[in-house]
Structure formats: C-alpha cells, structure tokens
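DM between two lab members

TW: hey, do you still have the DeoR/GlpR transcriptional regulator entry open?
JB: yeah, one sec
JB: this one, 283 aa:
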Amino acid sequence: MNAYLILPIWARFAIKREGRALSVLKDLSPDERKAMILRRINESGRVLANAVASEFGVSEDSIRRDLRELAEQGLVQRFHGGASRSRSGPRSFQQRARDDTAGKKAIAAAAAARIPANATMLLDSSTTVLEFVRALPADLQTCIITGSPDIAAAALDHPCCEVILLGGSLNRLTRSAIGQSTLTEVQSMRVDFCVLGACAVDEALMLRAENYDDARMKLAFGQACNEIILLATSEKLVKQGPFAIGPISIISTLVTDKTADRSILERISETGVEVIVAGDPVK
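TW: and the structure you got?
JB:
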C-alpha cells in the first residue's frame, strides 16, 4: 500500500491539488509520520523500514527510530528490518471502561462537584469522563459538547443538560468523532470548561496520547476552553505515550485518586496546576 493512501481523504485531495505527494509526506512531523505508520501496520499487518523510508522520503534511521518508539509503547512488535501489529493490539473503549472502576468513580465524583450551574463543557471520549458525566447532579443546568456517542447518551439521562454531539468520522477504538471537520468545528468554539481523560503523563510531565487523532482532538479541546480539568487515575502518571499533547502546565486542574505517587503530584503542583486527590479532605 502506498503511504499516500493512509492519509485522511481531505489531505489526499489537498496533495493531489498541488501535485506534490512525496514532498508532503517528507514534511510530516515525527508524530504525524508515526501515526501514519501505525495506521498502516494496523491495516496491513506489517511494514518494512526500507520501503517506508523510500515512500516517505526520509532516512531508514528515522523510520527505525519511529518503529522503536512505537514498540516501546507496546503499539507494534519489531522484527529485523521492520515491525508488525502488536500481539495484544490496541484496547477498545469497552475494555478500558472495565479498568479501575472504583478509582474512576471517585475521580469523577470529585470533578463533578466542581462544575457550576450553566457551564458549557467540551468532553473528550475518555472512560473516566464517561463516569464524570454519570456523576453530575441530575438537576444541574449545563451544556455538554462531545464527539463521543456514549458520553452524549449518558448526558441525555440528565434532564437539565443540553447535549451537542460533534460530527465527523467515528474512530472504532475511541468510539468518538475524529478528523478535520471535527477539529474545525471545535476550533470555532469558546467554552467554560474542557474535561479530558489522561492517556499518559510522562516523566518530563508532558501530556501524551496513544492515538494521534486523539492527541490532536485533546489539544483542540484544550485550546477552545477557559479551564482544562484533567482526570487521571494513578496508573496514568509517569507513563509513556507516543504522541505529545503539551506540558502539564497547559491544564488548570488535575483530579486523581488516593494511590497516586505524592512526589509526582508535588512536581505537578509546582507547575501551577491545582491538584485534587479524590477522597482527601477539602483544603
């Protein structure tokens, strides 16, 4: 499969119009290139480093580095000269929803208690954010905007909540809208709060995602709001992820659980982020 075919349809049209497919592929950022490589591996089962390097117009060393980073995140399995689909594969929304439900519910309740009446919120497709919606008071007047049909359906159970579902192509793994049309819609908004689920916060306190489209969407959500609330179970702190979103300091508030490493929380607090530990006494 030609690497050009892995691009979203809107990007293919743009490249065709200008007639410079190879130069566009060559100019991709490392994260964009890794996202395309990962998509190709998931679709075709394997890639060879020399073939991908030729198609992208970059060195084999660059592709080997991309494959190594993807393998370190458990997203692919390396072999001599290339990489193949991970044996475990990416986990679905339904699978992730069963992880640490007690921790997620505690975090969700603590975060939900902070939302004032008449707030407008952008919510991403995290399973912890799903619990957050369920934890909102039934009589809370609010407006929820999301690309997740699951979260939109949960919000509809709140009779005082206005629900807006973003359009776009649906990603089967995240069960949420993705793509340029969704990004453009979000970029036209300005809301009170953005509530995000954390995929990972690495040792350098950089927010990271396991999915390139998810990273772009989280960043767009954050840029469209006055205050970012990040919901993160303790296992997500000091964890790696292949796609950078931004430094932890871009968020306003972190809500986590009581098992989180307090030394990490102190480092996060020193960046100016308000840290709330679910179950701790309110200061």
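TW: got it. Residues 105 and 155 are 16 Å apart (CA to CA). The radius of gyration is 20 Å.
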